[in-house]
Every structure is written in structure tokens, then in C-alpha cells.
Amino acid sequence: MDRRVVIVEPKASWPTEFEAISKSLKDALGPLALRVDHIGSTAVPGLPAKDRIDIQLTVAALDKGRLVPALARAGFIDQDIGQDHRPPGASGPDANWRKLFFQAGSGRPVNLHVRAEGMPNQRYALLFRDYLRADPEAAAAYARLKRALAALGIDPGVYADVKDPACDLIYIAAEAWAAKTGWAAR
């Protein structure tokens, strides 16, 4: 199997595909789903990305006993990843960066990041997305980085490890932007 990262031009269908997946998640999870957000590069208009929809499911608690069976019924497979990348300077316990991670079992490729409400990793994904939506120059620079990394033909895990420090730099700028604009997750 070819495991190279492929970056594609933005697709007009990504938001509509997210909406359909979001509805099925809400139907499957009911009140367990506090919010379902389109995150990642496919959530930023005009941004090239891997053709994989990233979704953040916000829950009250990371209760695997309740979430894994419900998400399995919705067609998602637990990938047994329990921790997000922790950016430099992040305070608080490592538990603040816990998550559950699932992928669609078939059909449209989807990464489902399940995070607890109010945790810094839940906020990180939303702020990162909103900042890139608001700053086309930062989004363009991020796109150049992603294309250059993909052109190296590296393993997806290495791609993510190399990209994380760049995301941290974007996040630092996003925090300044959030303070200046009064941004809050909506």
C-alpha cells in the first residue's frame, strides 16, 4: 500500500461532505455529541489538503466505554491514539491533551478527533482553523509547507511530526490574533 502523503487542491464538496458526516454522528451519538466541528485544512476555504475530512467531536468526558460502541455503530474504528501533540509552553497536566481518535471504516476518508469540552486541545483545533480562515497569508504559507513536505515522499507519521512545530508557530500567531480580536470558539 502506498503511504505517501498526497496534497490536493481544495474541493468545493468538502463542506457538504462534512455536513453529511456531522449529521450521521449527531444521529448516532445523540446527547453524547456536544458539538461537531469541521477542523483541519479541509475546513479552510481555498487551502490545499489531504483529501481526508478532519472532524472534532466534542464530548463532556472521554468515556471509551460509551463512545467506542456508539462510534462503531456509526462506522468509525478506534485507532487507539490517546494524546494530542502538546505545543511548547502549554501549561497544566498531560490529561488536558488527551483525545480519542477514530477513522471511517469505509467510504469517505475521515479522521475523527474526540476531545473533551473546555480542554486546551479542543480549543487549539478551533482557533487554528479560525485563524487560518482569517489570515490568507498564514494559510498560503501553511499550504507551501504542506506541499513541500508531501513532495519529499515521507511516511505520514514523519509528515505529521515535521509539521507539528510549524503548527505551533501558527498557533502562537493565532493566540495573539485571538487576544487582539476577542476570538471565542463558536
Let me know the average pLDDT: 94
- Main sheet specs: 5 strands, mixed
Fraction of helical residues? 40-55%
What's the order of the H and E elements? HEEHEEEHHH
Adjacency order of strands in the biggest sheet: 1-2-5-4-3
Q: Would you tell me the structural class of the helices and strands? A: alpha+beta
Question: What best-fitting shape do the alpha-carbon axes yield?
Answer: globular
| Percentage of residues in DSSP E strands | 5-15%
Distance between the termini: 39 Å
Number of DSSP E strands: 5
Molecular structure report:
- This protein has helices spanning 14-29, 64-73, 120-134, 136-151, 156-181, and strands at residues 35-39, 53-59, 76-78, 100-104, 110-116.
- α3 (120-134) crosses α4 (136-151) and α3 crosses α5.
- The model has no long low-confidence stretch (mean pLDDT 94).
- The longest helix has 26 residues, at 156-181.
- It has 186 residues and is an alpha+beta fold.
- The protein has a 5-stranded mixed sheet with strand order 1-2-5-4-3, with helices on both faces.
- The chain is 45% helix and 15% strand.
